[in-house]
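ASSEMBLY PREDICTION REQUEST
Request ID: AP-0331
Submitted by: J.K., bench scientist
Number of chains: two
Total residues: 378
Priority: normal
Notes: Please return the full assembly, not individual chains.
Input sequences:
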Amino acid sequence: MKYCSHCGHPVTQRIPENDNLPRYICDHCGAIHYQNPKIITGCLPIWENNDAENQILLCRRAIEPRYGLWTLPAGFMENAETLEQAAERESIEEANANIDSLQLYTVISLPHVNQIYVMYRAQLCDKNFYPGAESLEVELFSEQDIPWDRLAFHTIHFTLEKYFQDRKQNHYPVHTHTINTRNGKSADQ
Amino acid sequence: MKYCSHCGHPVTQRIPENDNLPRYICDHCGAIHYQNPKIITGCLPIWENNDAENQILLCRRAIEPRYGLWTLPAGFMENAETLEQAAERESIEEANANIDSLQLYTVISLPHVNQIYVMYRAQLCDKNFYPGAESLEVELFSEQDIPWDRLAFHTIHFTLEKYFQDRKQNHYPVHTHTINTRNGKSADQ
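STATUS: Completed
Returned structure:
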């Protein structure tokens, strides 16, 4: 940030009165420009097979970062929507996947990139999914077929790993977690 | 937003290519300025009385909005911290309260103000708390003394209400919720 988004004059970085962190401040109009973490929300769409193991819908990324790697439908939350609406919107945008029965599942802090992931378990309503503009392909995977070494993000790895662990007990507590370096070194909480 | 924070030229609002929502766009440098919900995080500090009912620490606000009303320690999450660190920092800033054993408790979407509340249950470590700059007073309350009609926010009301309900069963699932109008009309999820 170099210029004030309210008045267009240059900003400087310093600690405002009654604060303890440096902020971008406009000396012309007095605006203080706070910068805060962004929320990425999405879901783990579960296809319930009556006569076989449940499967999970993954998307292969058609965009950077991590072009060509597999992920769960997720993306930046927008203003004026709820977390659940954002997760449903991302499922449609990335996989044209209709989901319902959302249940909060993983909440992951990534302080090195100023992001919070909020992921839901969800039921996939039908098999009418197909790739959206940001996906090369979308596909159902059984546990033994998950491409663990070609997943796009540590957050996705963590969420899938917890799901397959919890599925054994049929008990799905909400998991909080921190991933705090770029190479994915992480601390359970 | 009227001016580009990168180059200082005026921005216009329109839908970028490959997008479906209007964004602030700079026609001079090409920057797209996304606006996203902010996270407010905090905690419900619990003082465990060995010989009586547990008590909850509340803060009476010394700042607007809702000056003079009671709240739980909470505030805007900063960049470069985890949700748990943010909740601990807010407890110190508002009440000089030392907390530990944080457990995720309520996750509340407020789409009309572009906010997400993430509240933790926490153990209050000692009784050495005292008001921070943003509090008029900080005090322990038993359930029967909670000032329900003088609480600052619906999110705080919801979190306290769930806590006292769950305490009866000694079972504290994570609660998700939406509060979607300014008068606090809300929908359970």
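REVIEWER COMMENTS: Chain A has two domains: 1-35, 38-188.
SIGN-OFF: pending second reviewer
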